[in-house]
Structures are given as structure tokens and as C-alpha cells.
Amino acid sequence: MDALLLSRIQFGFVISFHILFPAFTIGLASWLMFLEGCWLRTREQAWMDLYRFWVKVFAISFGMGVVSGIVMSFQFGTNWAMLSERAGSILGPLLSYEVLTAFFLEAGFLGVMLFGQKKVAPAVHFFCTCMVALGTLISTFWIIAAISWMHTPQGHEVVNGIFVPADWRAVIFNPSMPYRLAHMVLAAFITTCFVIGGVGAWHLRRSTYPALAGRMLKLAVAFGAIAVPLQVLVGDQHGLNTLKHQPVKVAAMEAHWEQGPPGEGVPLILFAVPRQAEARNDYEIAVPRLGSLILTHTLDGEIKPLAAVPAGDRPPVAPVFYAFRVMVGLGMLMLLLVLASAFAWWRGRLVGSPLLLNAWRLLSPAGFIALLAGWWVTEIGRQPWVVYGLMRTSEAVSPNLVAPQVAASIAGYASVYAVVFGAGIWYLYRLLKKGPQPHEAPPEPEGGLKTPARPLSAAGEADIEEGGAQ
User: Fold this and answer.
1) Residue 9 and residue 16: Cα distance in Å, rounded?
2) Mind listing the pLDDT tens digit for each residue in 155-174?
3) Longest dimension (CA), the chain
4) Taking the C-alpha atoms of 169, 175, 179 and 185 in order, what is their torsion angle to the nearest 10 degrees?
5) pLDDT at 179
6) Residues 341-350: pLDDT tens digits?
7) Which stretch of 296-300, 304-308, 422-426, 452-456 has the lowest confidence by average pLDDT?
8) Cα 304 to Cα 249: distance, rounded to the nearest angstrom
9) Kindly report the CA angle at 69 between 96 and 57, in degrees rounded to 5?
10) Closest C-alpha to 390, from 109, 136, 214, 163
11) Which comes out higher in pLDDT, residue 449 or 24?
């Protein structure tokens, strides 16, 4: 293992860990906005009970996401200095826009959202919740714009080996950006949806807080029945876009090594053991022509095989092949579950079905696993390029970087993450297991909500008069 491979492993470890928390908070912020909006409209205490429960989960997840994101950004200077030098004129501003337009927005309203519910009017607090939710989506927009440019670069010029922006609109709205953005946002929403549904199913099985748990599960089913089929359609369009701009990645996803006879089409490989050194598959189980139907929407369509490019330009096939099938397989299971749950709800049998409740509990982490699998397909499938077709990953690593240094930093990251984030995840698990406890509606203060104007105003008038007499 040289410094390049170790740097890739380190970045993959850190970003894989980091992406889980922002994706969860993207969905949670919108979920909280929905809950508080329903409470404002109906004044039903159950909505506020759910809000108070999930806002605690959001606060912890948001904090861990921020910390892991800060750690991740250090690597651009330590491990990937050549990428920063050559592509910094494009990536730097995009990441700065994310801080200026999204992170500041989230940070500005987050404190009021978490701690100011008794200090401001309900409408003002709801506005703060909406701004935090909007901030998470704006943050996603800029991060996806930067990542997508590295996959489908355009709108730039190369001057003395440096990528210089020529058209910012083309840089931001590059060919894969709209598809990747929609796919990522829906993935974040679905991830959160299945956690909410799984927590609701857990408490229904334990008969704790059945009213609140049943409401969570039904809302998860309602949203999932819309979002999961929509994700299937968006994923199909994203796949067609990838086939157009990164055909070798699609060939790796399908372990498609050689072009078959004309008119035979491309089979859909259900299972195989890809052998990259021999450029073949072992133990292959395939359905004829189905791959062509899915990938090109025709029965005899062809895709570019891996043999069409030199071996040095092919991505690692096995991890891309397996990760893609994990993502798609979990997506199909989630689709079947939400459709079956919607049907059971229509028949009035949802909350009383042990099979469906256990299925929701089992698939509650499915969104996280599918999200990671999809991310690995996207990033590993881009190899050996860091800026697709223009700059290789081997050209992006910092010069004079030695393997023992990177190995030591990986060990340090892993140790700290195991302690700090292990404790955070354990606390989240305990919080979710405890469940959404009902609360009595807080009494409205006389004269409306107000904040003391000076320290002495917190004391009673009698105390002030007594102190003045003394």
C-alpha cells in the first residue's frame, strides 16, 4: 500500500462516515418543518410532542455532521494538494458559496430553533425551522455542484495545467448535476423516512406511545409511497445520463467486459464474481436482453464494454458491481415494503400487522446502507480519474507524501471516530429507543412572550423595593 492508495482509503473512510449525518439531517430538517407546520395549523399537542422528540435527534446528528465535515476538509491540503492547486479555482469558490449561503443560514437560525421556542412567537420559531431546512438543501446544492463538476467537467479552461472557470453557469449546472442533486435529495429524504417508520414500528411492537408511534409509521408510509417510486424514476434518468457521459462506469456496474454478437443485446447479470485481471466473470447468473432494456430502454441496445478502454483506464469492477446491486436490491425491498404497507393501511391492518412492523424495524437502516452503496458506485466508478477524463487521481495526491504518515493518520482518525462518534451514535440509539413521550401543553405566559430587558427585571417588584429601602 503506497501513499496514494492509503490516501484514497482515508478519504473514503472519512467521507463515507460524514455523508451519513448530513443526509439524515437534510431529511430531518424538512420533517421538523412539516411537524411544526401541522402543529401551527391544528394546535394538536401530538404534533408538538413529535417535534420535541425529533429535534433532539436532529441536534445531535447535526453536530456530528459538522465535526466530521471539518475533519474531511483538512485532507485537501494534507493529502490532495495537487488537486487543490489545479482545481482550486473552481472547487474553492463552490465550497465557499456553500459556507456563505447555507452554513451561515443554518447557524444563524439553529440556535433559535433549538433553544428559543419559549422566547419567540410560534410563527417566528416556525420561520427559523424553515430557514434551517432551507439551509440544508442549499448546502446540498453547492456540494453536489462541486462533486458533479468533477464527474462531468465543463465551463472551464485549462491554463498552464490549472482549471480556470470560464462560465460559472456551465460549471455549476454541468450535465450530471441536476440528476445527481435530485437523486441525492430523495435518497436523504428516504433515509430519514425509513428511520422514522422504523422507530414508529419499534414502539408499536412494544406498545409504547401507540398513538404517536402509529402516526410516525403512517406518515412514513405515506411519504415513502411517493418518494421511493419517484426515486426509481430519477435513478433511471441518472443512469441514462451516466451512460452518456461515463460509459465505462456503467460497464463496471454491469461487469460488462466484451461486446456480444450484433442484435444480442446486453444481459442483466444478477450475480457474478468479476475477475479484473482476467477480464471475465465467474459463476455468472444473467437474464438475456434485460440489461439492454434497463440501460437503453430497447431489447437490442448496446453499451460500451470495459474492453473498449485500456486496462489502466478501468475502475475497480468488483466493488462497483457489488455496491450497485446492494443499492438497487435495497431500493426494491423498500419499494415493496411501502407499497405493501400502503395497501395494509387502506385495509385498516397496518398497525396490527406484526410482519409489516418487523419489516419496518429491519429496514430502518436500509436507507443509510443504500446511500453508502450508491456513493461508492459513484466515486469508485470514476477511477482512475479525479476530474473525469482530465486529471488522474495519481496526479492529485500531495508530493512527498509517505505511506507511514498516511497510515498513522488513518489509525488516528479511526480511533477518535470510534470513541467520539461511537458515543454519539449510542446516545442516538438510546434516545430513539426511549421514544416520543407525550407532554402537556405549556401554559401561555400572561401578557404574551417576552424576554427580560435587564437582569433586575428577572426579580420580583417586591424584592426590588425591599432592596432599595435597605
Assistant:
1) 10
2) 999 999 899 999 999 999 99
3) 103
4) -40
5) 95
6) 999 999 888 8
7) 452-456
8) 10
9) 120
10) 163
11) 24
Backbone angles phi, psi at 163, to 5 degrees: -80, 115
Average pLDDT score, the chain: 87
> How many other C-beta atoms lie within 10 A of the C-beta of residue 259?
14
Q: What is the dihedral sign for C-alpha 315, 317, 318, 320?
A: positive
| Nearby residues of 20 by Cβ (< 8 Å), 6 or more positions away | 368, 371, 372
Q: Do 266 and 256 contact (CB within 8 A), yes or no?
A: yes
Amino acid identity, position 447: G
Distance CA 249, CA 253 (A): 6
Query: Which residue's C-alpha cell is 416556525?
Result: 126
Q: What is the pLDDT at residue 85?
A: 92
Instruction: Say which residue the cell 411544526 belongs to.
Output: 36
pLDDT at site 64: 86
DSSP states of 428-452: HHHHHHH-----PPPPPPTTS----
* Residue 391 β-bridge partners: 387
Residue 275 CB neighbour total at 10 angstroms: 14
Find residue 156's DSSP bridge partners.
Answer: 165
Amino acid at 332: M
Q: Burial level of 452, CB count in 10 A (0-12/13-18/19+)?
A: exposed
**Averaged over 206-229, what is the pLDDT?**
92
Alpha helices in 279-402 (DSSP H): 290-296, 317-346, 354-363, 366-380, 393-396
What is the rounded radius of gyration, in angstroms, for the C-alpha atoms of the chain? 26
pLDDT at 18: 85
Cα separations in angstroms, 241 against 118, 142, 174, 448? 49, 20, 11, 55
Predicted model pTM: 0.88
Report the alpha-carbon distance of residue 258 to residue 279 in Å, rounded. Answer: 9
Distance CA 329, CA 308 (A): 28
Spatial separation of the C-alpha atoms in residues 326 and 358, rounded to whole Å: 21
* CB contact set of 23 (below 8 Å; sequence gap of 6+): 184, 187, 188, 191, 192, 368, 371
SS3 295: helix
Cα(368)–Cα(20) distance, integer angstroms? 7
- Please write the tens of the pLDDT for every residue from 311-341: 889 999 999 999 999 999 999 999 999 999 9
Confidence class of residue 454 from pLDDT cuts 50, 70 and 90? very low
What the block records as the C-alpha cell of 31 is 420533517
Distance CA 341, CA 3 (A): 49
Scanning the structure block, which residue is given the C-alpha cell 483506464? 313
